[in-house]
Amino acid sequence: MRFIAILLMFAMYGFTLGCSDSGSGGNGSDTSDTDSDSDSDSDTDTDTDSDSDTDTDSDTDTDSDTDTDTDSDTDTDTDTDTDTDTDTDTDTDTDTDTDTDTDSDTDTDTDTDTDTDTDTDTDTDTDTDTDTDSDTDTDTDTDTDTDTDTDTDTDTDSDTDEIVGLIVAPNGVAGAAGTLDAPTTLDDALSRVGAGETIYLRGGNYPYGTTIRLTANGNDVAPIGLRAYPLDSDRPRFDFSQMPEDSSNRGFILSGNYWHVYGIDVYRAGDNGMNVSGSNNIIEFCSFSECADTGLQIGGGATNNLILNCDSYYNADSTLENADGFAAKLDVGTGNRFVGCRAWNNLDDGWDGYLRPADNITTTYENCWAIDNGKDKNGNNGVGDGNGFKTGGSDDKDLRHNAIYKQCIAAGNRVDGFDHNSNRGSVTIINCAAHNNGSNINFSTSNIAASLTIKNTISLGTNGSLNATATDITNNSWQNGLAATSDDFVSVDISQLKSPRKSDGSLPDIDYLKLTAGSDLRNAGVDAGLPFSGSAPDLGPFESDN
Description:
mainly beta; 12-stranded parallel β-sheet; 10-stranded parallel β-sheet; 6% helix
């Protein structure tokens, strides 16, 4: 019986053990966690953003990144990206949004947004999804892509930063660095300068007793500069008063090629203020005064030089007869030009074109004024030739200096305004004026010129003879029933021609020989290749506005 009772107890105990085991096995299958990571993240994110992330990032974003991320990421992405960039920003955003959801949402958002606006929209939007980017994503980027980057590049620089070169000053020290703080001397700078470099001269007086030689060569793309320092109000003035009068005592000798000399004054050289024997140089906005011979002379075979907006005045030698304002003379080459230059009160001529031995060369003069030559600085007559423009001449009377004058003025010169002087070349005078000279225009039959062309020119006063082997003389103020008088002009005050230049070196605006509204010299010319505004060109150097 006891044995049976024991068996019954044992059977009951085994039954309770079996029940508890089957219970724990049933709950174990529950870990399916539906974690299929389908991520209700519907991430419709057309963002191919498969975003299998658990990130409840419901990212409904019309991007659809609603990125409920506290970053409110309402991301209605007002980034509707109107992006007129046709970039409707369907935000295909290759946005690989691998969303391994460290939530780095790598959302590198490469947003390449092809928007060449490179708007790679990296949208660094690393979307650590604090998205401090609060991704209201108005994407202020409205991607109108105006690219404010208008690249106006105004370079507030105003070019003052481009003052690069050797600095010379009156108190410069040879061997110094040649900077604003440590300027050097001109002689030292000349020994160091080369093609494409510039020497800047500080304003002030430079006393010199010896010739300054410019011998280095530039080239057509890299000239050498010798210029007044642009920020100084005073000009550099080279004073050669220490020099005795002698044919070897020139102020400057320019034998190099491709120089640009700008803004210097040359005073009281013992012979020429500047003698140019090099080629392809520009001498601009310079003055030459009170030298013992011609202010600026071109010779030595020099070709293709431009003398621009320069003045030469009060030049006089001790004999009171042999100093011109400018000269392209003796052994000069061809192709030299004077533009916007003035010569006044020089004891010989304003311009001298006498040849020895050069022959059949051409020099051009445009907008040049020759005033009161053959007189000293006080207006007293000298014993020189006294012409405004001496076109040529030679020892044997056979050499040809072809001369072209356009819109030039000769006024108040003691002898001739435009002078033949036995020049055997061809001379052309277009839209010029001669006033109150001993003889305004004078070409004789002696050693006659090859040809003489005069058109649209005013002579207020008396002409000499107008002869040449061939002539083409038409539409001038003494032809076609015309006769110029002072009533045709706003002013006939010759002194206006000596008025100060403009700050850029150009000729002054004056009323002298400007035609009055009622003058019959208006529209009385013939087309000679210069611009005009009326039905025909006006006569003289100044075209009226209407």
